[in-house]
Amino acid sequence: MTILRQSFLLTSLLSIALASYAAPDPQKTATTPAPAAATANTVTATAEPIIDYRERFIPVVARHGMVVGPEQLAAEVGTQMLRQGGNAVDAAVATGFALAVTYPRAGNLGGGGFMLIHLADDDRQTLIDYRESAPAAATRDMFLNAQGELDQQREYFSLQSAGVPGTVGGLLYALDKYGTLSREQVLAPAIELAKKGFPVSFALSFEIAASAERLRQNPAAKQLFFKADGTAYEIGDTWRQPDLAWTLGQISERGADGFYRGEVAQRISAEMAAGEGLITAQDLADYRVVERQPVRGTYRGFEVVSTPPPSSGGIHILQILNVLEGYDLQAMGHNSAEYLHHLTESMKLAYADRSLYLADPDFVDVPVAKLIDKGYATRQRARIDSKQATPSVDIAPGRPLGNESTETTHYSVADRFGNVVSNTYTLNFSFGSHIAVPGTGMLLNNEMADFAASPGNANAFGLVQGEANKIEPGKRPLSSMSPTIVMRDGKPWLATGSPGGSVIITTVLQMALNAMEFDMNVSTAAAEPRIHHQWMPDVLRMEEGFSPDTVRLLQAMGQPVEIAGRTSGRTNSIMLEDGWLYGASDTRRPGGWVAGY
Ligand code: GLY
Hints:
Blueprint: H1 3-6, H2 11-19, H3 26-31, H4 36-39, E1 60-62, E2 66-69, H5 72-83, H6 88-102, E3 112-119, E4 124-130, H7 152-157, H8 167-178, H9 183-196, E5 198-199, H10 202-210, H11 212-217, H12 219-225, E6 238-239, H13 242-254, H14 257-260, H15 262-274, H16 281-286, E7 290-292, E8 295-299, E9 302-306, H17 313-324, H18 329-332, H19 337-357, H20 368-371, H21 374-381, E10 409-414, E11 420-426, E12 436-437, E13 442-443, E14 484-488, E15 491-496, H22 503-516, H23 522-527, E16 531-532, E17 540-542, H24 548-556, E18 561-563, E19 572-577, E20 580-585, E21 593-596
Parallel strand pairs: 17-18
Antiparallel strand pairs: 1-20, 2-10, 2-21, 3-4, 3-11, 4-7, 5-6, 8-9, 9-14, 10-11, 12-13, 14-15, 15-19, 16-17, 19-20
Helix pairs in contact: 5-6, 6-8, 6-9, 9-13, 17-19, 17-21, 17-22, 19-24
The protein binds glycine.
């Protein structure tokens, strides 16, 4: 944060921001001892947080702990763990399980994701890959019909759409290895929310209504999301999920075995066997979480730590930053046509690489070091014409990337010990395959659609992918999920991430750039309009909010502008400065929440 922003303290505004959050329960914090090892790292704060009164978007401020996520109840469950003495991992795991109850469009037990953790005591970051994997019976052409054409219904909305779920394994792995609370403690709030129910919010009612037609087609999903008479729950109605409470109870009692073996696994495999699903009891028992090294790079003195393959996100964020580092972006001006042109051209180069090289690193040799090398960026930068857009077809042979969902969800967590978690997980589409497993209260993902079902052809979102991401048994589909932590002076400074499929990468990129390069506070960085270009299709998608003059200048440079009828991503971020936590939940969607204390 610059001296400019530091010089504008607004204590009264701070009081308002703090007042909107429940005061810490002194009894709880006093009587629950913090984990001994973590206490040594407890961050000391400057006297006052920094709020710049001239900014139009002001973050929420907290001192001890914070969870920023897509839904209020689950974010509060996370801070409840922090108040009980838990660390950021405990809070992240509890939030993840709670979102499976309160945010069913993307929160999940039946999906997968990536958790990036900064461990204060060890002063290191680690990445937990709990991405779904293809069942043993999966085959390269399983979604092609007899004519060799893609059967999109089967790819997106059938039992075959589902990869072996990783979420339960991933959350429990994180808890066992890096958490401090018991499994029963972190699962208790989710079980209670499912059992006792909670009032349906506007956001939840809206989201279910948007997917109602397809959810009603699956009997178990219909039973889960609608009243006994088939009508929708109204805003304010209490929604109970007894089957989901039972599943969560199995996990609480038996750990990963409660999901991957035993009765829950039996219900999943029975449903698969009764239809044309591929996941067997053996696939579930064989599922493995993988702990990986994050990818990391530098940008003008910041260190950017992000998600490695099987996500493409971290690599491409670093690639684009490497190219942009060679330009004087501040001289161009934030969101000027010149800036957006260079951003666009850098995005195109990275996404062209995505189609060729990126896939599950346990199956394909992904040249990570070469792709994020600064020398490679210098050569790529030389290909950019500063005055004229280069058509995508001239960048690389046409291999558009596949169809990626705009759903998924992200939340960020910080605790008073200096630990930070950035977690993105998903069912792929909103409500995944829209198929629930009877007796579990749980939706199945449709993550198999993130493979190149028809290598060489564009998927529904226009992304072209090559053979590297073809379907193979046990393989993880290529993702764009990009939970990211930006480090400043060796300490976590910004935790961020977003839903949005291929848009995740450009969303997180612009969030980080706005903060690092343009010194925006976390709320302003989230609010600024964003662009997206993914090389193929050759379209520059711009959110509403750019000046018509800027748009005209971009068009004059040959940029194929399309003013998107939709927004780009939805960040949930925390900035950590001088011992204070600044949170911002993107205003692009309803229901987001910053819970801090
Ligand atoms: N399914 C969205 C992603 O993995 O990026």
